[in-house]
Write the structure tokens for this entry.
Amino acid sequence: MDTILLEITNEKAYKLIQDLEALDIVKILEKSIKPKESLSKRFAGSLNLTDQQYEEFQQHVIDSRNEWERDI
């Protein structure tokens, strides 16, 4: 048999798939697979910077970007 991955977008669909499993038509391999979070959501706020540290970090990013523009 083939194995496929389904994304359930409606609670009624999940119940339907459970009914299919009860009838031995399909088999649910894993009942809860959490979707991967985007990097921005996963790391948002993880630095816990003070306002001053944040401003210094932003300035460092700006300075770093300007270095790429500089002629050597």
